[in-house]
Specification:
There is one protein chain. This protein has two helices and four strands; from the N terminus they run E-H-E-H-E-E. The chain has 68 residues and is an alpha+beta fold. The protein has one domain (2-67): P-loop containing nucleotide triphosphate hydrolases (Rossmann fold, 3-Layer(aba) Sandwich). The strands form two sheets. It has a two-stranded parallel ribbon with strand order 1-2. The radius of gyration is 13 Å and the shape is globular. It comes from Soehngenia longivitae.
Length: 68
């Protein structure tokens, strides 16, 4: 359950201090939400990230390097 029902969910390094089991549970919940814009900021690009998001934006020194 989210604290607030907002259209945009911004997650900035949200899983960096959470064990892999709980990370999986939380990510499954977040990805099950409908009609939400989810922005995840991370340095840990995994297969899970690549498969679950519509767009991946790579930044380097504060500038867009690549969009896939």
């Amino acid at each position: 359950m989210l604290v607030a029902n907002r259209l945009i969910i911004l997650m900035d390094e949200s899983f960096s201090s959470i064990d892999s089991n709980n990370t999986k549970i939380i990510k499954e919940y977040i990805m099950s939400l409908k009609d939400k814009i989810i922005i995840e900021v991370t340095h840990d690009i995994t297969e899970d990230i690549l498969n679950n998001y519509d767009r991946i934006i790579y930044l380097e020194e504060g500038k867009i390097k690549k969009i896939i």
